[in-house]
Amino acid sequence: MKKIEFSKEGKAEIVSRIRAYFDRELDPIGGLPAEFLLDFFAEEIGPYFYNRGLRDAQVALLQRMDDVAEDIHLLEREEKF
User: Fold this and answer.
1) pLDDT (tens digit, 0 to 9) for every residue of the chain, 81 residues total?
2) Which pLDDT score is estimated for 60?
């Protein structure tokens, strides 16, 4: 699997949220430790959420395909031969 990467702006926003969470719920954390924590989560836990998202997308797609098959069936006309 390709490594999970963030844009510079996206990473800065996530690091800011991590730091805010630590300030609110735990002990304050610096920017560099917050980046290391983000990298750890992306590498160790990210694949779980990525795969879960793929499975959820597959279920949604299969449901839509069933809906399309049903719609096509409803369009069928009686054959007279």
Assistant:
1) 678 888 999 999 999 999 999 999 999 999 999 999 999 999 889 889 999 999 999 999 999 999 999 999 988 888 887
2) 95
Distance of CA 49 to the CA centre of its chain: 6
| CA–CA dist 7, 52 (Å, integer) | 22
User: Which structure tokens are listed for 29?
Assistant: 């954390």
Q: Catalogue the long-range contacts made by 19-22 (C-beta closer than 8 Å, 24 or more residues apart).
A: none
What DSSP assignment string belongs to 14-74?
HHHHHHHHHHHHSS---HHHHHHHHHHHHHHTHHHHHHHHHHHHHHHHHHHHHHHHHHHHH
53 contact partners, CB below 8 Å, separation of at least 6: none
| 35 and 15 Cβ atoms separated by less than 8 Å | yes
